[in-house]
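Hi V.,

You were right to ask for the full record rather than a summary. Here it is.
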Amino acid sequence: MSVTVEQSGAVSIVSMDDGKANALSSSMIASLSEAIDAAEADDSVRAVVLTGREGRFSGGFDLSVMNGGDMDSIVSLVAEGGDLVRKLYGATVPVVAASTGHAVAAGALMLIGCDVRVSVEGPFKVGLNEVAIGMTLPEWAHTLAVERLSKRGIQRAIANARLTDPTEAVNVGFIDRVVPADQLMAAAMEEAEALTLLEPNAYARTMTGFRGATLAQMDADIAADRATLQP
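Predicted structure:
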């Protein structure tokens, strides 16, 4: 099973583990989206922790699709990923990322879609490597990156495809806090449990106002991508 969900108190823990790189396939994206929808619909859930497998948060989009040459399949997968990242950023419950290791490309975009990002320390790669592998970021990703990455770091992160370790990724804006591996889930749960104390309706209303313009632009960007699909 690639995605599992368990609840601890008022926190829903959503775990990705495909046994490999936690690539974002259509099925992985759908399962993650369903988990976020379920958390939002359950009044007993007041926060979400999104985590990966040991050493891997996510390696990004499924390369068998991205390198497969079928442009409709590529556009469709990237749009699905955009929907997921947009859902994370616009969730009516706070989402904490517990990054277990490498988080590159769409994996890094999931990080910047989460409210709080806690990562293991170590020689892991974090960032947007699209330009280095002959790809470009979709517009929805640019829209979110401008909002969440640091002014000083965004040029090198996007245009220069610079990857960093988790500690330096704090300065770029991908990560908020770095801890030893054996403390990761405890630290992420600590962050999530603090967020469960927020009044849910006030949080949801605040997110609508605070992030509404960015979410609307992401919606428009994703719709524009889908409009290029063959009928």
